[in-house]
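Batch job 17 of 40 flagged for manual review because the log was empty.
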Amino acid sequence: MRKASVAIVILAAGKASRMGEGGKHKLLAAFDGVPLVRRSALTALAADAASVIVVTGHRRSEIEATLDGLDLTFIDNPDYASGMASSLIAGFSSRDADSAEGILVMLADMPGISTTHLDALISAFRNSGGETVVRAVSQGKPGNPVILPRSLTQAVLRLRGDVGARAIIATSGLPVLDVDVGDAALLDVDTPDEVLAAGGAMNRSAKNTLR
């Protein structure tokens, strides 16, 4: 049986507005010596997916430089300041996403997500026939990443503002399959304190942290 193709869209365009002054960016924070956004990309690249797309916006040149040398497709979102919907639209509009049967939406600021977690979600999507929403949860509480079937693309393209796919999932009429990946499903880092609590180290830039 042919396996349903899945593209991973990493959202890395946000303003990181809760990081405070001083030039710090959560996606450039180092975890095990690797900038968080690069760590997330490496995690995605190791998964059983057809392609990995990274949506950039805020401090685009720094983020893309941090990902130098990786087999990624970059999509620029000039409207990133309007909220998450614009980044979802940018990612889903890319050629790689349009040719996939499922799009795994991954937030770049979730340090606990592993390749094993992504492969569990992808496997669940394929085993369900490719027409099911697959969602990472922790003890029943919805989190991220999520996989949306291609049939929901038009609904994503109609999103506006700082909203994600939660409303689409609730109204899609499609079955939703929850995959428990533990605490990682709910762990994102929005402030310097959260970065440190999750085991990261703050950097003003990505300099000297690439591997």
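Reviewer: the log was empty due to a logging misconfiguration, but the result itself is present. The chain has eight helices and nine strands. Unflagging and moving on to job 18.
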